[in-house]
Structure formats: C-alpha cells, structure tokens
Amino acid sequence: MPLFASTGPRLAKRLADLAVASALTLAALLAGTGRAPAQEAETQREQPVTEDQYAAVVRAIVEKHIRPAAERLSQDAELLSADVQALCANPTEDSLATTRRSFESTVRALAAMDGIRIGPLVQDNRLEKLAFWPDPRGIGLKQVQAVLVKADATAADPATLAGKSVGVQGLTALEFVLYGTGAEALLQPADPAGAFRCRYGAAIAANVAGLSSTLVEGWEGEGADLLLQPGPRNPQFRTHAEAAGALFSAMATGLEVLADQKLRTPLGDSAEKARPKLSYFWRSSQTFPSIAATLEAIQHEFEVSGASDLLEKPQLWLANSIVFEAGNAARKAQGITLPPAEAFNDPAVREQAKYLSIVASSLKRSIGRETAVALGLEQSFNALDGD
Amino acid sequence: MDRRAFLRLSAGTLTAAVLGPRRLHAATVGGEALYASCVKLPNDSYAVAIMSESGAIQFLRPLPDRGHDVAFDPVSRRCVAFARRPGTFAVVVDLDGRTEPVVLSAAPGRHFYGHGVFTADGSILYATENDFEAAGGVVGIYDAKADFRRIGEFSTGGVGPHELVWLPDGRTLAVANGGLDTHPDFGRVALNSAEMQPSLSLLEAESGRLLATETLDRDLAALSIRHLAVDAAGAVWFGCQYEGDPMDLPPLAGRLVPGRRAELFSLPDELQAGARNYVGSVAASADGELVAFSAPRGGIVFAFEARSARFAGKVEFNDGCGIAPAPVRGPSLLATSGTGRIATVERSSGLAITPVGRDDLAFDNHLNLLA
Q: What architecture is domain B3-369?
C-alpha cells in the first residue's frame, strides 16, 4: 500500500482500475494458445481508441442526445396531461383533437428513446409502464377494458394507478381511452361512463408525465453516473469502452425492435397474413411516424457521438452511409400516410415497409457490429445475447 | 415445499433409479471422454460439435439455426441438440454415425426452450416447451424408442421454463421456471418483465405431478431462475439472470435442498458487480463437491463448495459460458467460450483456470459431458 498511500484516493482508484485492467489483459494472454481468432483480428486498429476518447463519446451522447430526448418526452407528457384535464373540464371536438395531437407527439417522443433502452428507461420497469408493447395476447387491452367496464376508481387516481398493472397505466392504455371503441363517450360528460373514461385518461396522462420527469432526473443524476463513471464498483461498466459499447448496442437493439417487431411481425408473410393490430400505436396511426422518430433519433445520436471522428480512414464510409441511410429511411417512413390498419394490407405500402425493415436491419449491423468493431469495442457471442 | 413432498423425495433416494439420471461411464474416444456443445462456425452457420476432453473436435453436424443445450442418451449413444428459444427444431445425432441426423419439430402451438433430458434407460426424452397461447410452461414427453413421437406433456407449474435436471432418485425432475413470458410473434422479447414470477418446480416425471414449487421473496421477483445442477448431496443449485433494475446487485446463485427453503448466495462484495447480474450456465464437478457458475457478461467463472456453500473463488474467462464436469472424479470442470477457447477450471487455493485448447469457432451457451 505505500505506493497508493501518497497518491490520494482518486489516483489510487485509477491505479486500482489499471491494475484490474492489466490483470484482465494478462489473463487474456495466458488463455491464448497462439493463433488469433477471427473476431479478435478484426478489431486491430492502427491507433487504438483511448479510454479518454471512449469517455468523450459517452459524454457527448448523454449530454447532446439522451438528456434532450428525455427532456422533450417530459415536456410533451406535461402538455398532454394538461390537455387531458382541459378535455375533461370542457369536452369538445376541438379539445379532443388537441389532446390527440399532444398524445401523438408524446408517442413520437417516446419512440425517439427506443435506441437508448438503458439506465433510467429500463429501471423500475419504466419502459413497460410508459408503453405496454408488444402485447400479442391483448392482455393490456383486456385490462383497460375491465377498468372502463368496472369504472375502477383506483385507476382514475394517479396515486393508486401507479401501483396497478403496467398494462393499464401508460400510453398504450391512454391510446385506447382516446381512440379505442367507445372513445366518443369522452364528449358526453353527462354520461357517467364518459366522465369516468376521461378521469381515467387524466390519471394515465399524469402518471406518464410523472414517469417522464423521473427519467429526466435519472439522466441528470444516477443514470448518467452509470455511464459516465465506470469502474470495478459500477454494477454495469468497468471501463469507458464498455459504456460506449453498451450505447452502440442499445442503438442496435432499437433498430432490431424496429425491423422485427414493429415491421416484420405486423407485415406477416403475405397481405392476407398481415396483422396490423400487433403494430405499435396503430389506433392513433403513429406506427410509421414513430418509426420515423426512432430513425431520426438514432441518426442524431450517431452524429453527436463523434464516432465518425474516431473511425480510421478505411472505415470512414461507414459513418456517412449510416447517417445517409437513417435519414433516407426516416423520410420514407414519414411518407407512409395510410392508417396502419390498411397500410399493412396494401401491396404498395407493404413493399415500402419491407424496404424499411431491411434498411433498419442493415443499420443495426452497421452500428452494432461494423462500427463497434471499427472502434475497437469488443463483440462477444454469449455475453451479448445469451440465454 | 410441503412435508409430504419432502418425505416422498427422501424415500425416492432409497429406491433404485427406475427412470432417472445416474451416469454409467462417459462415452470415450481413444480413452478420452467426449463432450457436446452447440457452436457457431466462422461462416455464421450453426452446428453441434462433438469433441474430446482435450478439445479436439471429433465431428460437427449442422443445425438449421442457433442451438442451445444437448441431451445425451448413453444407452443408444444418441445426442439431441435443441434449438435456442423460441426455436422449434431438435436434431438427433448418433454418436457413432450409424444413422443420419434426424430433425424433430416442436408440436403446433409449442416451441422449445433449449433444454431436455433422457431417462436413464433412454426410453423417454423430456423437453421444456412453451404453450405460447396459454402462456404456460410445459414439459413435452417424447418416446425415444418410437422416432421421438410426442406422447404427452405436463405443466411445469410456471411460466418460461428453461433447464430441467434429474434429482438423484431418478424419478423427480427439477425445472427452472424462468418466469419470462414470450410469444413467437415477438421472438425473444420478454412480455412480462414487470410482472414475473420465477420459480423452481419439482415434478414427478412419470405422472407429471407437481410435488413442490419454490418461489423467491417478492423483492426478487425479477430474478429469473434459469440453469440447474445437482451436487453430491442431491441438492439442486440454480443460477439466475436478473431482469430488474441493473443498478441492483441481487444474489445470482442458489441451492434448494429438497424439504427446505431455497437459500441464495451472493458473491463476495468486491466481486458482486463483476458477474453483471447474469449467469449463463451451472455445472457440478464429477464428484459433486464443487458447483461452478459461468457469467459470460462479466467474463468470469465462479464456484461454491457444495457442502459448505462457501465461495470457492473465481477466474477470468472472456465470454466463457459452457461448463461441464471434467471426466476425472475431482473438484474440476471443463469450460468453453464464445471465442473458441477450452479450459479446465479446478479447485486450488481458490479457483484456477488452465487453457486446454482453442478452435476457430464460437462455443454456445452449454457444454455437456457425454455420460
């Protein structure tokens, strides 16, 4: 300990981290028996990326992308909450239309966080609470209908709603309230069912606003520390490289969800086998606008990460092609205006949706694999997608 | 577990094994024990690999997609490699190459979870499966003597079953109900991570009767019980994957002594974060005295002494996941990694790892001693 005694706690911790790092390297060398494996050879760069550089990538993503995205969701959710209250106080076609516009904007703000399923968004089941999807057996729908039929008072109070099943407290539940069968009752305040439906909607909107503001706080504090302060005591990341790797993996996860769950599943094998009702926010026609929002967000995240500055010459094309493809696909998604319930059965739109799905899968590979490897971020087989 | 179930289990250990587990002798080639593992090849295709204890691949049989675990019947010397969840194939491979591999398909409305076991006489194969419209775990029953015809199923008493193992009585199956609900429409996506109820069930194989179900405390509802191994004393050790808040550091290892409540074991404080809340597989050494857990996300393998449940140590093993008993009857195991490495892990002052070999392929989740 004499070496560490004179160096102060900060440096001592750094030295301890270094000791761990070199022990790992040594173990890796000892475990080797000669021939370099293919995936290890691919990571060879002329200039290795330093821990400081990885730290800068993580910091840029947190500050320039994640925090603003959480902030936007929180603002949209606040507005939505106010709009639902105004709708209940003064139910008119206009106030319903206004509420629906805020709802749609909030859904897109949530979709913009699909590439950052990490930290505060996945803690305390927040993602499932914000939107209970996918739901192939319609469990959430049945629960929401039960709340409405029973006029369950505990669901109309934000304080007790938060403790109920995740399926009845988020945006998927609110979507049914605002767009689902019987939504016209919202304009009949004299009808007890209509009044209850609105109060339940207001409670959901308040709950979503509360969850969103918790996200903002999380990304200001502990959630950001998780990514920004790796080390032996950090439950998830030992090094800045691992934290950066997790952020690129999260982008890849968002793209996989988009390609497979949001597009391939509702598309089915043919127009006859299409299942539009499995798609993301189809009642409010936000399926394709939210896909555009996810793609734009991932494009933005990739740009602000500074990854392109760290790529070496032979891989520079990757960054340009990622930004170009993501932007292009987002525009294509915005161009699909047919309601999802028809779009997934329409031959022309099906072709566009298939194309989107292929582009998203290819972006997933470019970001999650090729860029990650080019940046020297370790790719492992069992660790990434185990069982 | 209720008292009657305990008595039944105690009685079971005294009777001769009719169905159940105990190995005869390990299958060998040139005096070396054989192992099986699903693998990914450099051309991104999948296979099941049969190899010797020194790591020499004896042969590969292609799989239609990514595999998971391998069941072995020492009587007919056949392996069955299962698709990884939510796959629907299982491939039967004859160790001696007398017959071509046969591809089995899951029943309509079912998919495999990646694990299965044979009865000791090789007559029946049991596999964990998902009844995905009902969102219930089942054990599929296959007649191994009649082209693996599916002759029935019984409930696992939970959702998302994963590994199943025999208790030493040879009649009781322990099944890890991971608690995660999935539906093939949405692949591997967990549909209920907010409302999971993992459990460890003990079932009478012949009747499918649920003997006991052990659940963890409510605050550990997100601790998915996935992988199992039985030690020298007949206790079931389990390894968990935490689906809850990644900032939590719950215990990842546990032991169920039939008739008692399950116990959970944490790693020493300074190592707890290093397992990344994820155990990939569990295996006991051949003498059943050392129980090892792989944590591929943390790149470590750690172990507990079976009797005392004392932490025995940990070693670094990058992307290491497959573990199986070493053929010798000591506190020693063989481990494989996604980077193609094979190593022995054994008890020394703590735990020690020794490289054995490496192949230009990726070993998947599980390694099996063919015994």
A: 7 Propeller (2.130)
